[in-house]
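The following record pairs a protein chain with its ligand, adenosine-5'-triphosphate.
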Amino acid sequence: MRRILILNPKGGCGKSTIATNLASYYASQGMPVHLVDFDAQGSSMDWLAARPAEAPAIQGLFADEETFLAPHTKGVMIMDAPAGVHGKRLKRYVKLAQTLLIPVLPSPIDMRATAKYVEELLLVGRVNKERTRVAVLANRVREHTLVYQSLERFLQQLQIPFVAHLRDSQNYIRAAEQGAGIFELPPSQVEADLEQWQHLLDWLASEQSMPLKGRKN
Ligand SMILES: Nc1ncnc2c1ncn2[C@@H]1O[C@H](COP(=O)(O)OP(=O)(O)OP(=O)(O)O)[C@@H](O)[C@H]1O
Ligand SMILES: [Mg+2]
């Protein structure tokens, strides 16, 4: 099973938004999808509860990273972590996934926190290419702002790939209200967002996002 975890040191950077949209994308492609919510806040499970019965199915579960065992089934598992997971807990989270996605907001506070977190992931989490791949993405971007330009420079300097930027858009709010992803809104309404997601989806479909041990050849 393909295992993707969304995590970040800061609250409110878009972990649940990215997790639920990814889940809806894979479900809309006909893949079996598990959406795992590790956050007691339950945003991903609330989203799933609002999802219409006729929408492509997503299997949801609340879990605790200490006791969680990934199901041995086909498909994809999207995991939504709580904010600020450090130390031993971080180590356990890292072991659960093949691919870690770190969303970052265009804000100096978030950038500094992310720089430290990436360091912690490499040292404490012992992330290495054999077992885990990590990427960052910018979220809630307003492209022609100075703070976004500085975020872009910052993300390019990190030692891990910067795979996508997602604009700040009401489409995410509208989709979330309905238990849907932007992939399930009318295409003419989300054209600009779909284009931005394609970079992330292409990276996730590529070997670059798979640890060396998980690759087929
Ligand atoms: N690209 C975006 N455009 C507009 N709004 C967004 C975008 N991404 C996230 N949001 C909004 O920002 C808020 C925080 O997002 P979200 O809940 O996904 O963050 P989180 O990292 O999961 O937060 P927490 O750490 O509390 O779990 C939500 O109201 C969400 O709808
Ligand atoms: Mg969340």
